[in-house]
Amino acid sequence: MQLYSTFLLVAILCTIHTCVYSHLIGTGKADITGPVAEIHLFGYAEMDQIANGILQRCYARAYIVVDDDSMPDGSNNDQLTGNRIVFVNVDLQSMSLTVKARVIQRLQLMFGPDMYSMQNVMISSTHTHSNTGGYLEHFLYEIPVKGWLEETVQAVVSGIVNSIVKAHYHLEKGHVTFNTHELLDTNINRSPSAYSANPPEERAQYTHNVDKDMTLLGFHTDDRDLGLINWFAVHGVSVNKTNRLVNGDNKGYASYSVEKNKKFTNTTVSTSSDIFVAAFAQSNEGDVSPHTLGFFCTGTDQPCDGTKSSKCPWRSTCQGRGPGWKVGHLDSNRVIGENQAAKAIALYLESKGKPQHTLSGPIDYKQVYWNVPETKIVQPDGSIHALCKPAMGLSFIAGTTDAEPGIGVYQETTHMPWYWRLIRIFIKTPTPTQALCHAPKPIIFDTGEMNVPHAWQPHILDLQLLRLGDVYIAGVPAEFTTMSGRRLRKAIKRTLVKHGGDPSSIRVILSGPANGYSSYVATYEEYQVQRFEGAATIYGPHTLEGYIQVFQALATSMVTHAPITLPNTIIQPPPNTASSQAPLTTHFDPLKMTMAGRRLYFDLTPRRGTDHPIFSFGFGDVIQDVSEQEYHPSTHDVVVISVTFVAGNPRHNPKADGSFLTVEQKQNDGGWKTIRNDHDYDTRFRWNLKSKLFGQSEAIVEWEISNQTERK
């Protein structure tokens, strides 16, 4: 009787104080910043956008949830056997299947073959356009960055592994909370004409033509804040294509802002510390822009939409304007990032300690490899929709209103001009079957029928569904438009409800690009318009229907515990994902896939040479020092303090989890305190090659100060 009374008392107290732990949770963070010089930034496909320094470092942020809430004293995390899921968010444009496979290889060498696998680890990206590329294994995505770059890949793989290992050894009893709310003034639709092509009755279900809700998972123990993941749809293009400094764009800034917030940490110095880990993950941002003021022809106030009817004047291009555009794109990036950071903090604190926000229930996962061109979708009337081999449309090279290239090609082009047909002859003319399958898209790159030097775009995709109680995370290797994401989430929820799920508690999150990259997914109706997003929907007009079919099968299998049954569509990938012509296998060996793929990759980046100091100087010598004058900035002034050093090429040492610079403040006791490093937003690390012949270079360190800069 006494035991029963004690149990009852504990239950009552835990209900009040939220001390019942339903899961083991762990968070970790590690640097993935690779080479910051002489490597192309990836996202805008600008051949002259080559990195020459750092604005902010880029990170992998890992979260592990285990459904075993009984960790005996004296046990260690390697002995836990409960179901677990791993979510990793990386400050990259996207993710690749090869990188994920390498991560799993390393984890299985450390923890055995069963704890971490391709099935229970999801790696999603923020979609920043300001980090280096070279980690995607298909030729179309290698062209803008001159190949497959081991320098980048090794830094990314090591960082992701380190973040997961940290989370693994930080596992402890805790709970995860869920919250969601609307965030305004942070995103707009960049292709409203395509969105308007969706059925009126469907559009009438939504207030906005982009998703405005931020969805957040909070990680807590009874006495500590561990971190958060949130999903909000907005493109990582606040920092424009003139940029040469590596950074995580608006979501990278948001993570930085939260992680240095004194609510969660006692330090104001942003390092790779994982005291509090804040991931700002991406959702269905395909047609979503951070340029909230709209799109205008450069040098004018003339609105534009990227079509020929709104053609900009000579030497002018259609470009988006962020909220701080009059100051500069970095200020717009700060505003959009800070908006997300402020909302995330509010949602996290609101859900903290609230039983109604606390998740409980099973941990589960389902994952498949999907052979997309082999997919047939049977319609209610008996007709069949077939998906296509990959291809890119002419409007793809027109770019977007976030960053129009200005090459005389326009969005919403549904016919191929004769001169482009002529040019296409020298690339690859699509077969009649391929052209018909993709209609009304005029194909400019017939990537699905091009395999030299290897496959141009993927045929096989890694799709994944994670479950945490009543929250389901769908990992997609593509950029979904607003309505595409809405349809997929609704279809998954409808399937879960059909099998007994509670419609009032089920939440479906779309996360991506995750586990790979295959450009865009537009709805069938948006595809007909052939704006950029439709032209980059590579498997034809019924691509979204294929995704829905597969994810419905994953959801069904998850809740019924039955095998996934989709004949001729769900298979294991070939051992070499860089070549779609390799024979299919029934067993997936990540090591063979990675090593076989590497033999086909190319790398045309400049070779690293030997460093030598500038004549009459030594490494580290000051070439141009800071002025000794005192600075007293007024309210609106920003003063840049700069010093130039003799340096080596930073490609020789990316300083993982370190810094190329520090700003130190003299203390009253005569000591020095570090108050800034190269991850802070008001510092810049720039590198200049002075002489390639003699291997001489210099580094410029900058610090922006204003009246807001802290004093002693």
Automatic annotation (TrEMBL):
GO CC annotations on file: extracellular region; membrane
Statement: the UniProt record of this protein carries the keyword DNA-binding: no
Residues annotated to bind Zn(2+): 127, 235, 479, 520
Record-linked InterPro entries: Ceramidase_alk, NCDase_C_sf, NEUT/ALK_ceramidase_C, NEUT/ALK_ceramidase_N
One Pfam assignment: Ceramidase_alk
The protein's Enzyme Commission number: 3.5.1.23
Cofactor(s), by name: Zn(2+)
Textual note on the cofactor: Binds 1 zinc ion per subunit.
EC top class named in words: hydrolase
Active-site residues, Swiss-Prot/TrEMBL: 289
GO MF, one example: metal ion binding
Reactions that this protein is recorded to catalyse: an N-acylsphing-4-enine + H2O = sphing-4-enine + a fatty acid
Keywords, ordered alphabetically: Hydrolase, Lipid metabolism, Metal-binding, Signal, Sphingolipid metabolism, Zinc
Domain of life: Eukaryota
Gene Ontology biological-process annotations: ceramide catabolic process; long-chain fatty acid biosynthetic process; sphingosine biosynthetic process
Residues annotated as domain Neutral/alkaline non-lysosomal ceramidase C-terminal: 602-708
Keyword Magnesium belongs to the record: no
Signal peptide coordinates: 1-22
Annotated ranges, domain Neutral/alkaline non-lysosomal ceramidase N-terminal: 24-549
PANTHER family: CERAMIDASE, NEUTRAL CERAMIDASE
Family note: Belongs to the neutral ceramidase family.
Name of the featured protein: Neutral ceramidase
Gene: ABSGL_10892.1 scaffold 12033
